[in-house]
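Q&A log
Question type: sequence-to-structure
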Amino acid sequence: MIFLISFLSFGQDYITDANDIIQNALRKVPENKPELALESFQYNTYTKGVFKTQDKESLELIPSESDYLFEEVALHRFDQNQKHQKEILGAHLPGFETPYYLLFKENFHSNSVYEKEYEVFDKRFHGPLSQNGSKHYIFELKETVTQSQRPYYIIHFSPANNKAAYQLSGILHIDSKSFAVQKAQIIHQENLAATITHDFTFIDEKEFWFPVKTTAEIYLLNAIENFNLFGNRIPPARMNYEEGKRISFNLESHITAIEFEVDENWDKKQIDISAKIESNETDTSFWNRFRESELSSEESAIANNAEATVRNNNIEKRIERLKDFGLGYYELGFFDFDLKLLVKYNGYEGFRTGVGGITNEKLSEHFRVGGYLVRGFKDKEFKYQISTDFNLHKKTETVLGFTYTDDVAELGTHSYLTDRRTFSLFEPRLLNIIQFYKHKTWRSNLEHQLSPKVNAEIQLSRSQIEQTLGYQFLNEGTLFSEYTLSEVKASVVWSPFGRFMETPAGVNEYAMGYPRFTSQITQSFKDVLDGNFNYTKIDLRADYIYSHINRSSTEVIVEGNLGFGDIPLTHMYHAYPNSPIKETIMERFSVAGIKSFETMYFGEFFSDKLATVHVKHQLKPFLIAPWLKPELVLITRHAIGTASNLENHQNITFNTLEKVYSESGVELNQLIFGFGLSFAYRYGAYQLPQFEDNVSFKFTFYMKL
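Response status: OK
Response body:
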């Protein structure tokens, strides 16, 4: 047999330079990468993951506080039009009554060695078979194996320098004829020790190397960085580095039932992961169909112990509570208390405190009832809201809601109906706001998911407006300090690059994709439901975040607001100013906002037509110690706008933005307990005569839960 193989390969000219082999492999990627070379294919995967640690007392892992084992079976489909979809066929998650759906989105490492970037946990590196990788790795030809049915080269690669983007090493088996990968071993040795092996098989009918198995052995080493497991962060303080007490993670995935024609009837919605299973699969016969071998006695013991640990420690409930807390809710029975209502402070109300929330699915899956009651200690007035929502169609997240609100709102503030709810322990700008108006608003909202990538909402409202300042709006010869607005709003958010998962609860975007686009149109009607003014507002926003491979990131937000008609100041636009009107820099020392102009004074500018751009560039965190990882952020912001018929806005003074307003600065975040420092400087057309009036010096707060 060896003689025959040698005879068949006789006469083939083997390449002796490793870089030439890699360049040939790069050139052949379009012919060897399944997603580029094949029109369609599908296969099953069986995945098993085992976490182990011998230090049960000092480590808390989600979902388990001890060793843990999970299994998953999925059907993968791919075609050139619909791309890749993963359908979960079964899951074994010991201790959980319902599947832990977030686990299905986890990629502990890249599934392909042909990608431009290779990931290990949440760390990204240049792939060895990428143009950047070919420049920054050193390749060595260790052996040419000719006594094989498919002769191959054994190539070792290692980083040419110690930059984070290149810190992979490993071994590639490159087919000498097709320059496809027959086998790859990827190794990483910084903060964690990872060895990931990709095995391929040769498909005779296609003359193609297709992946069939991946195994990974990962150990957490001494580190000052966090690691993400199950969507949650494991801080370094939770790791024990003593020999025999370190955390290990073993993952194996087997590919079977490979087919090169996909069923034309498969669900081709814009879903990346279809996880519609409602319970964990416990049938042994199901798992025996997919396992290469039965669970070992040790693995069975791990699964049984994890079952008891998850149930006894109520882990499933704790995960739900963490998820709710991230949105600002705390569940107590059938009611979710709204943590955003507990304590706030602003210049008009002073301290504002109260209670409220909304019912959850434990009361009903078909409707929710909510509201709040709060009181300001400075204005000594109560505010409240009553609301109810009806779930008309769960699959498309169609919700009809009715709300009555008696509260205050900031002059010139603007938001989109489709913006997601966010929660922060601090709401930075709120501390400094002094210009408010009162409103009593009836509104009805209809939310609907047009497609996984497009969400829409429409709102009908009637608001009675009352001033807290002396402001009056002159319209058609009449001065209004109190007026009624009858509005229709329609908002759409489009996330063309997001990644979506479908579960029994509906479709959600589990990985934000950028750019994403939001639009909204508002029409106010005169003489409809006693409305006083006609006006139209059109708003467009584009958000873009790019995470660089060196762990820095760039964020750009571009927004345009166009209003025309009879718009009172309360419903015009400001550029989110965040500088108190005080004399000295230190008197203005407060909390920097997330998307605000730090050197622009409150009430300084208003516009009915406005365009803004915000650019942030965060450098790679400085890894000084487990408790000290500051982040340096470079910031620049610009705004331009105009306001029509200034004479109609009486008993108040403000400027307009016909020239470009500019400020730039830096933030040094995460110095201690989430706090940092911010510095910004105002320059250009609206620079003020006194130097210190152009300077903003504040602290920042970014708490990562």
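Response note: The first helix runs from residue 2 to 9.
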